[in-house]
Amino acid sequence: MDLIVEPGRALKGEIQVPGDKSISHRAIMCASLASGVSTISGFLESEDCLATLKAFQSLGINIDRNRSLIKVQGKGLYGLKKPDKSLDLGNSGTSMRLITGILAGQKFNSVLSGDESLLKRPMERITNPLNSMGYSIKAQEDGTPPLEIFNVQKVSSINYELPMASAQVKSCLMFASLFAEGESVIKENFRTRDHTERMFLKFAIPIHISELESTKLISITPPKDIKPCDINVCGDFSSASFFILAALISPNSHVLIRNVGINSTRTGFLVALREMGANITIKNPKNSFEPVADIEVKTSKLKGVTLDPKLVPNIIDELPSLFIASALAEGTTKIRGAKELRYKESDRLESMAQSLDKFGVTSKLVEDGIDIKGLDQSDLDKGPFDSGEIDSFGDHRVAMASIMGALRSKGTCKIKNCENISTSFPGFIELSNQLGLDIKKE
Ligand code: S3P
After folding, report:
1. Which domain holds residue 364?
2. Residues 100 and 220 in one domain
3. Fewer CB in 10 Å around end: N or C, the chain?
């Protein structure tokens, strides 16, 4: 699917974005392992989250779905049943990595597979620590899926320091710890998203967290059973981030995005943008098991920054948008410590450098980052990006960041291969147009 984007629009109005992707996955997983009925409201009906939902249905869990209201009849920690065939997780790395941690502990064999992009993604980061616990998971020779998961009798707990900033690896091991003997301890030296920790606490799973300076220790004791509970999923900050970007860079814009998750492990984008001079206000903050607020954004003049690499794990999915903001800022922006971007749905450093190049922006890639030269500020009113065709490489976040970049081009742009937007953001085009944009399918 190719999208045609008309430039020069202002964004005005109030919107609500769909439910948080990371929280929706985890809610289905914990609810399936609980003993009894849990409800999930505000569930994200995107392809990735539906891949998780369908996987648990294939694993014998009854799940009623009435749009974004979900009722899960959990069958207990060991209540899943062997699926008839391999589980297809589509494009979803989160589903693949977290579900592996759960299926590793079940008393049956299973196979996990996915689409062309998922079959290229690295899995040794989970298979190595899982196998060191005594689990038995086999990837392809190059460490990619499909993954074969074999039934084992006994597994020991793990004491593991995460070698990279990855919430998926952390969460996979947290789930796997539920089926091990004794207490497991997972140590992280970078603050990655903590939705699994919060979800475990919400389901009263025995977990203890201690934090000392930059180190965090998560200790998990396997429970006998998990009590069901009711979850309300907030709006996804990552989806909101595309409208934050668009409103900042489009003249005369003013938007309010309601009910968005503002968990600090996710909102490094706001920290970076404020340092760049962005006019963003947090309104009506509320604290549930996840912090939530409304975000107000007005058009802003931005200046380039050197991003603190410690912020990278908290802005990992919003870096494509930060690249676009940097290209319109005064001066050069330098980003380092972002090698993980190369292992996403596409190599996002490479994909975004190509987008920037098509827009006429000068950037320099290094192995773990990029330098982006902001455009001449005297040209800012006249476009200032070149127009043309941009490939999103089938990567939803590259697609949406490039679409927002196209708002500041001199003419109409075509953004190619956008079908995967629906993996994280169903209704993206309609919501964008509701705010005043002009995006259509070719
Ligand atoms: C996610 C973790 C991040 C993120 C992804 C969702 C999660 O991946 O990029 O979109 O829900 O745990 P990594 O753990 O690979 O950084």
Report:
1. 3-19+234-441
2. yes
3. C
